[in-house]
Amino acid sequence: MELYELDVTQNDTIEEVISTLILKHKKIDVLINNAGAGFSKTLEQASFDEIQWVTEVNYLGVVRTTKAMLPYMRKAKQGRIINISSVGGLVGQPFNELYCAAKFAVEGFTEALATYISDPFNIHLTTVQPGGISTEFMNNAISKTVTEKGEFATGEYAAIFQKYLEGVQTRSANSENSPYQTGKEVAQIILDIANTEQPPLRVRTSAWAEDFTKLKTAADPDGRLILESVKKDIL
């Protein structure tokens, strides 16, 4: 296994790693945009620096790595780009408006790019939409909600946020109806997508995620219909 360090908010580190890999292996078959960070805070409470950070890590990082990778995949006439999104990329959730906005952007970016990249260049794009993964992701997201005074949401939002936090804790503890999967479970789904000849545009990773997003996905579960419709109407 080879590990290379990069920062998805810094173009030079992305380009350096990709150049190193291309020089060594001549091509890159799969790009998995997995970098991301949760964020649960009211819009009023969030600073503009925090808003910029959430957007940089969760959305613009995907744009940067994809932009850097596309010329090589296009030249090779093959590739898989798998963007780790979230059910929050389909359904807005309380106290997650900034995180959801970034993930909604990932969904739109992926869908639009797929309309003209997939067929002529054999580059397939997929967004993966977990409900939650049993890592430190949620704990880190909640920790960023604490103010310098050690408080969570304050003022008129405090009671609403407390109810939200209790719900998160209850769902985490309920193994029979938990939105959370292990990282290994989600990784296996990503591996299957990478090895699929005609991967879908969108994939939920659990029954919970399917149920949570069903009002948005029932008519076109894997996104293939919307892609074909847009290409027929516009291209």
Q: Please provide the count of β strands.
A: 4
Biggest sheet architecture: 4 strands, parallel
Give the class from helix and strand content and strand pairing.
alpha/beta
Element-level helix/strand string: HEHEHEHHHEHHH
Shape, per Cα inertia axes: globular
The CATH architecture would be 3-Layer(aba) Sandwich
- Strand order in space, largest sheet: 1-2-3-4
Report helical residue fraction: 40-55%
Distance between the termini: 42 Å
Going by CATH, the homologous superfamily would be NAD(P)-binding Rossmann-like Domain
**CA-based gyration radius:** 19 Å
Look at the structure and give the CATH class: Alpha Beta
The residue-averaged pLDDT reads: 90
Parts with pLDDT < 50 across at least 5 consecutive residues: none
Number of domains: 1
Strand content: 5-15%
Walk me through this protein's architecture.
The chain is α/β, with parallel strands linked by helices and 235 residues long. It has one domain (21-234): Rossmann fold. It is 53% helix and 9% strand. It has 9 helices and 4 strands. It has a 4-stranded parallel sheet, with helices on both faces. The longest helix has 29 residues, at 48-76. The radius of gyration is 19 Å and the shape is globular. The termini are far apart. The mean pLDDT is 90.
